[in-house]
Amino acid sequence: MLKYSRQREAIKNFLLQRYDHPTAETVYTNMKEDFPNISLGTVYRNLSLLAELGEIQKLSTGFGPDRFDGNTAPHYHFICNSCGCVLDLEVGGLDHINILAGQDFDGEIEGHQVYFYGKCPNCSPS
Amino acid sequence: MLKYSRQREAIKNFLLQRYDHPTAETVYTNMKEDFPNISLGTVYRNLSLLAELGEIQKLSTGFGPDRFDGNTAPHYHFICNSCGCVLDLEVGGLDHINILAGQDFDGEIEGHQVYFYGKCPNCSPS
DNA sequence: CTGCATGCAAAAACTTTGCACCGCC
DNA sequence: GGCGGTGCAAAGTTTTTGCATGCAG
After folding, report:
1. B76-118 and B6-69 share a CATH fold
2. What residues in chain B have per-residue pLDDT under 70?
3. Fewer CB within 10 Å: C terminus or N terminus of chain A?
4. Helices in A1-125 by DSSP H: which ranges?
5. Nearest to A91 among B101, B120, B124 (CB)
């Protein structure tokens, strides 16, 4: 049985209004404004829980700590090899890739995660 | 200047003959057979180095420690939500996704990583 | 009241790093 | 010989967990 918690609610709302895919640490720092006594453990517990429920996305970028995204609509992510920033990326024509992937596969494909790597507009030479 | 090392060579060869995407710990355990005194630090150093050189791939699956893949040919990965195993997946028709992704993007796309999630053949109900 | 959620702190899990010595070039 | 690589151990980073208390149902 899942019980309501003001902290969880606040964490989810925070993520919904951020577009930079914060880390647990960043969430924690920002939560402290409204909940001075909140603990990092609580942040981690709620982030994991929300990710399991599918209400947020967890991103493992391969650089540093995991990041979290409140946008659950299908979209992709770009990670800058120079500055490490994480950007949203809308890419058309990838909706069918679960089906493509399942064609020669005996198990069940339930979802996917795509990370693009390169140089972000700020770090790009041009 | 990069200097030859028997340990690095052995790590690379080990990864080339494994298809289960071992963790650093697993590489370490196996290296100890040939190099009883090898240290975990050396394993991590060489895995990072090889990944930077593009001779192996580092996989951040979102579950547990990073994994490593000696197969540098373009291919994708499947991660089982039940048992956590990581399988190779050949998916046709995804070669162009860097181009698709770059179309509305101001930076530079240099590469991508795709993870599929679901139930592997062993964990699948059927 | 009952039990899940929290705060706090300790610990676990994973990875990196400093330093003295070793071995490739 | 000179310098990068190694082994060892310590430390750093990120995440999880145990326990007493707090609060939603």
Report:
1. no
2. 126
3. N
4. 6-16, 24-34, 40-53, 97-102
5. B101
- pLDDT band at A22, cuts 50/70/90? very high
Is strand D less than 7 A from the beta carbon of A40? Answer: yes
Domain boundaries in chain A? 6-69, 76-118
Measured in angstroms, what separates residue A84's CA from nucleotide C21's C1'? Answer: 36
Burial string for A54-81 (b: 16+ CB within 10 Å, else e) reads eebbbbbbeeeebbbbbeeeeebbbbbe
Per-residue pLDDT of B58-86, as tens digits, reads: 999 999 999 999 999 999 999 999 999 99
According to the model, what pLDDT value does residue B57 have?
98
Q: How confident is the model at residue A62 (pLDDT cuts 50, 70, 90)?
A: very high
User: CA of A11: how far to CAs of A26, A35, A44, B48, B95, in Å?
Assistant: 11, 11, 10, 34, 38
Does CATH number 1.10.443.10 belong to domain B6-69? no
Nearest CA in chain B to A119: B108
CATH entry 2.30.40.10 includes domain A76-118: no
pLDDT for the residue A125: 77
Residue identified by tokens 């925070």 is A14
Cβ atoms B115, B79 nearer than 8 A: yes
